[in-house]
Amino acid sequence: MHLFLVEERERGMRLDKFLVEKLGSSMSRAKIQKAIEEGQWTVDGKEVSVHHFLKAGQKVEEAKGIKEMSEETSLDEVKVIAETEDYVVIDKPSGVAVHPAPGIDEPTVVEMLADRYPELYSVGEDPMRPGVVHRIDKLVSGALVLARNQATFTHLKRQFQSREVTKQYIALVQGTFVNDEGVIDLPLVRSTTKGKRGKIQALPLAGKSQTRADWTQTNAERSVDNRKTREAVTKFEVAKRFPRFTLLRVFPETGRTHQIRAHFAAIGHPIAGDPLYHGSRKYKSSFILTRPFLHASSISFVDREGNEQTYPSPLPHMLRVIVDGLGG
């Protein structure tokens, strides 16, 4: 455990920079920021955000001990929301991919769950995606369900394909909205822009006004450079308005890669903190995000017995601090 007293010369330093100086090379700045976001460091006994500026005389204390992500990372890193004989619902942390893929060297969700749920590896259609019926972007957090047997995998997959699963996200986006709700119906394609590998592009808005309640395009407009497009529909409603930012409840009707992030970027309201779909400099704020402000806050589906199940996932500490700081 560490305890540091802020000296006069350190007045006005940001908390993460202060800890970088104090801890030296024993921990990277990224890991220090993650620890602060998780509430593992306090200032005068209170949890604060990464961008907190220190005052002389304050006490900076390691509250819970810092956990390192390593090859030995296990289920302890992943909170289990619910567990039945048929499925497990977890609270996926930001920065962890759901399943192995080329270019991913860190432990993934399915690898973290392997010891406790070895049966996952006999479930599904792809050995690289055992038990996986849907995904959440690596940088996004929240509720994720995995099937523990093939019958449940087929049952859940059918519901996802027929859009019977209800997924709700909480997002903080740049800018403000006139209307309290809206629909974004814009097909998605893979970006061909140099240096934007992996980025998804929503088709141009074809002159649609961005003050409208919904953004749609006709089928005739749904083609670009002969690239294959994927239908994508995102509904949303305003939860709270702040100066220069809006907190939204988001309901994706389809489940495309980067769908929510690409859709809101396309209409001029990118997700706050998104490193890939970032927006205008005019929306810069005093808070610092090391991830997109996008969280899968609940998932609802029908189990094999015919009962509707809903599993919520609370907003992570770092995101709660930012909302509170904005006046939420």
TrEMBL record:
Gene3D superfamilies listed in its UniProt record: Pseudouridine synthase, RNA-binding S4 domain
Domain RNA-binding S4: 13-71
Record keyword Metal-binding present: no
Keyword presence, Secreted: no
Pfam families for this protein: PseudoU_synth_2, S4
Domain of life: Bacteria
InterPro entries to which the protein is assigned, alphabetical: PsdUridine_synth_cat_dom_sf, PsdUridine_synth_RluA-like_CS, PsdUridine_synth_RsuA/RluA, RluA_PseudoU_synthase, S4_RNA-bd, S4_RNA-bd_sf
GO biological process, one term: enzyme-directed rRNA pseudouridine synthesis
One GO MF term attached to the UniProt entry: RNA binding
Alphabetized UniProt keyword annotations: Isomerase, RNA-binding
Record-stated family: Belongs to the pseudouridine synthase RluA family.
Name this polypeptide is given: RNA-binding S4 domain-containing protein
Organism of provenance: Candidatus Uhrbacteria bacterium RIFCSPHIGHO2_12_FULL_54_23
